[in-house]
Design goal:
The chain has 109 residues and is of the alpha+beta class. The chain has 3 helices and 4 strands. The protein has a 4-stranded antiparallel β-sheet. β2 and β3 form a beta hairpin. The protein is globular.
Length: 109
């Protein structure tokens, strides 16, 4: 993995459980469609409306191929539709970051 797609969500804090369901669905969909799911994260302390998703790829071309597979995947389409219907995502931003190899996944000693 050389890049990560960092997704920042503003969510309706009163629909936290709906976002959890949405994120858990991606736990099945993203790996099947070719993304390296690093994780989804809900707010715990402090701000109650900010959630995150992180997905890794070998390249931007790999990301584009993944996005094409997502558009065709029935469960992916249903998950997007559920989010639109329930309207628990108020805003979404995507940023692509480069992995710093010497400072990535270092375990505590």
């Amino acid at each position: 993995m050389t890049i990560a797609c960092f997704i920042r969500y503003d969510i309706d804090p009163f629909q936290r459980d709906a976002f959890r369901d949405y994120a858990e669905n991606w736990g099945r969909i993203i790996p099947r469609c070719g993304g390296n799911l690093i994780g989804y994260f809900l707010p715990l302390e402090g701000t109650n409306y900010e959630a995150w998703g992180l997905v890794g790829f070998d390249s931007l071309a790999a990301y584009e191929a993944y996005r094409a597979r997502l558009r065709l995947d029935p469960e992916s389409r249903a998950n997007f539709a559920m989010a639109q219907e329930k309207r628990f995502i108020l805003r979404e931003e995507r940023t692509f970051t480069e992995v710093v190899e010497g400072a990535f996944q270092k375990a505590a000693q």
